């Protein structure tokens, strides 16, 4: 084993010397036709060349001194690599390429996500807001209970929508909105801020003690997803009343959930779902797939 | 449970029922629907014995089962004057009918059923049913249900687009004949037009639609003399004048 080590070190030295020699050659002389530097260059080269020669001999000697090992070396798991010589049958290469690609992708995505999260304007923590405007009074989450009742009654509701407000969590209100015979939504308030929205079908139960279960219908699960993103969009701790009003107006646009075709593709069904997305400003219906293209 | 529409599939002359079912299943599967079990809707009709002393004609009671509601038995009594009384009972109702053989006799030869595969696509449930009467193939009846909507007027366009999509036939813009406006008597005794497509949908509506279609298939048989000779007394199976006039293929307009 020692001999093998020596031989490997010698090979390594040889390689590094050869590399140095070539680097020296590539650098060339510094002056233009200065006799001294030329001589020095040639001398250096000869020295290095001599060193290479002697090392080459040394390597040869060492290699000659090597013996065939009596028993196979124990190489751990890597020994199995030699068992199957055909590369195709090992199928290692494609796997390696795949994992490399995955790692690359994970890296890319985490980088993008990191950037996005850093500049996220949808952060909903109050501390975050208070850092920016330390002296602003937070009427938005510390409110008298009557205010939300008044706010909801002020909202210009279409006749087909009904509100039922109750307070299962102390002073914070929960409003159950029934939009025509189409859907029911439970809006959970914290003060005047909207904390959570659950959307369910008209025939599904939506009661005080079961506000969090998802709808059994795919379409309402999708609408709930969109309702959450709209909730973040309309979130505004400085103008909470306006935020609630615009959100409820947006939610009311779902009255024609099954009635209106998508504005872009003019079809009713895409992937088994009606147009579930309502534009945040124009309230026009779109399929989830159509809204971004 | 949601709005359900029944659509008879027009049978081409030179193709077998199994062939069309196969073709439609393939279209559904390639659309992205998943196969979700089997279904069966059957209908048996009982006739009351006529009572000659007061001249009441024989009444028909249709007893239907729907595999979607396995614990229930649906029965629809048809007085023959276009008025229907429907009743939803537990499945033990079948045994009750057997006890009443003195008054109601079963017309075995008109036992009709629709069975086949059930598919799910998003919130849609699609059933491809082959209608058989006494083991004879009668036609294909497509049932499509949109589970998340309760009112036909809201989602008819969606259902229509879906039907046209996978059936590859033209489906008329009007509501299906079952949902056509009907004249009803208000509790005050006035006649009023009632638009059924704005009502909340109920499981009995599905069953009534099946009865309407089954009645059409049976009529077709008696018109062509298939079992006509065995009918002994006049049976009023047409549920209402509107439905009778609209006919079986009322939904497909040229």
UniProtKB/TrEMBL annotation, chain A:
GO molecular function: transcription coactivator activity
Coiled coil: none
Regions crossing the membrane: none
One GO process term, biological-process aspect: regulation of transcription by RNA polymerase II
Keyword annotations: Nucleus, Transcription, Transcription regulation
GO CC term, one of those recorded: mediator complex
Predominant location: nucleus
Cited Pfam families: Med27
Keyword Transcription regulation: yes
Domain of life: Eukaryota
Database matches in InterPro entries: Mediator_Med27
Subcellular compartments: Nucleus
Protein family per UniProt: Belongs to the Mediator complex subunit 27 family.
This protein's name: Blast:Mediator of RNA polymerase II transcription subunit 27
Automatic annotation (TrEMBL), chain B:
Example GO molecular function: transcription coactivator activity
InterPro entries documented for this protein: Mediator_Med20
Keywords attached to this entry: Activator, Nucleus, Transcription, Transcription regulation
Entry GO terms, CC: mediator complex
Major site of localization recorded for this protein: nucleus
Keyword flag Transcription regulation: yes
Protein localization: Nucleus
Single GO biological process annotation from the record: regulation of transcription by RNA polymerase II
Subunit field text: Component of the Mediator complex.
PANTHER family membership: MEDIATOR OF RNA POLYMERASE II TRANSCRIPTION SUBUNIT 20 (PTHR12465:SF0), UBIQUITIN SPECIFIC PROTEASE HOMOLOG 49 (PTHR12465)
Similarity comment: family membership: Belongs to the Mediator complex subunit 20 family.
Function text: Component of the Mediator complex, a coactivator involved in the regulated transcription of nearly all RNA polymerase II-dependent genes. Mediator functions as a bridge to convey information from gene-specific regulatory proteins to the basal RNA polymerase II transcription machinery. Mediator is recruited to promoters by direct interactions with regulatory proteins and serves as a scaffold for the assembly of a functional preinitiation complex with RNA polymerase II and the general transcription factors.
Name recorded for this polypeptide: Mediator of RNA polymerase II transcription subunit 20
């Amino acid at each position: 084993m020692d001999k093998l080590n020596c031989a490997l070190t010698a090979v390594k030295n040889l390689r590094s010397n050869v590399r140095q020699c070539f680097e020296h050659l590539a650098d060339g002389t510094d002056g233009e036709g200065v006799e001294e530097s030329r001589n020095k260059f040639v001398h250096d080269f000869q020295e290095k060349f001599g060193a290479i020669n002697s090392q080459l001999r040394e390597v040869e000697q060492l290699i000659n001194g090597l013996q065939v090992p009596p028993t196979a070396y124990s190489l751990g798991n890597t020994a199995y690599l030699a068992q199957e010589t055909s590369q195709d049958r090992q199928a290692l290469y494609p796997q390696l390429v795949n994992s490399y690609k995955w790692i690359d992708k994970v890296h890319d995505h985490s980088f993008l996500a990191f950037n996005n999260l850093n500049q996220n304007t949808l952060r909903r923590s109050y501390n975050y807001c208070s850092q920016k405007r330390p002296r602003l009074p937070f009427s938005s989450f510390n409110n008298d209970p009557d205010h939300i009742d008044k706010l909801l009654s002020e909202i210009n509701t279409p006749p087909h929508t009904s509100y039922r407000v109750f307070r299962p969590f102390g002073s914070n209100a929960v409003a159950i909105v029934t939009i025509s015979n189409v859907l029911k939504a439970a809006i959970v308030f914290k003060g005047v801020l909207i904390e959570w929205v659950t959307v369910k079908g008209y025939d599904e139960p939506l009661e005080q003690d079961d506000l969090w279960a998802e709808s059994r219908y795919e379409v309402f699960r999708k609408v709930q997803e969109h309702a959450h993103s709209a909730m973040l969009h309309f979130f505004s701790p400085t103008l909470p009343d306006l935020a609630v009003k615009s959100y409820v107006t947006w939610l009311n646009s779902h009255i024609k959930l099954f009635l209106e075709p998508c504005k872009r593709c003019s079809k009713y069904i895409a992937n088994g779902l009606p147009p579930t997305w309502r534009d945040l400003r124009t309230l026009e219906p779109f399929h989830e797939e159509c809204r971004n293209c | 449970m949601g709005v359900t529409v029944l659509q008879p599939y027009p049978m081409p002359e030179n193709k077998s029922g199994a062939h069309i079912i196969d073709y439609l299943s393939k279209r559904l599967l390639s659309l992205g629907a998943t196969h979700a079990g089997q279904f069966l809707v059957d209908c048996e009709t009982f006739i009351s014995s006529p009572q000659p002393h007061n001249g009441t004609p024989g009444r028909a009671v249709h007893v239907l089962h729907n595999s979607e509601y396995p614990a229930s038995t649906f029965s629809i009594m048809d007085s023959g004057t276009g008025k229907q009384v429907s009743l939803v009972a537990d499945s033990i109702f079948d045994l009750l009918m057997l006890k009443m053989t003195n008054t109601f006799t079963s017309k075995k030869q008109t036992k009709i059923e629709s069975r086949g595969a059930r598919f799910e696509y998003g919130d849609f449930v699609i059933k491809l049913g082959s209608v058989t009467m006494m083991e004879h193939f009668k036609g294909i009846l497509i049932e499509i249900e949109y589970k998340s909507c309760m009112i036909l007027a809201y989602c008819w366009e969606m259902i229509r687009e879906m039907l046209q999509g996978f059936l590859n036939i033209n489906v008329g813009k009007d509501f299906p004949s079952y949902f056509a406006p009907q004249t009803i008597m208000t509790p005050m005794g006035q006649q009023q037009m009632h638009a059924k497509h704005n009502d909340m949908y109920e499981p009995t509506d599905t069953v009534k639609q099946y009865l309407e279609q089954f009645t059409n298939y049976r009529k077709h048989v008696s018109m062509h003399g298939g079992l006509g000779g065995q009918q002994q007394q006049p049976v009023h199976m047409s549920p209402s004048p509107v439905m009778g006039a609209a006919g079986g293929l009322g939904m497909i307009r040229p």
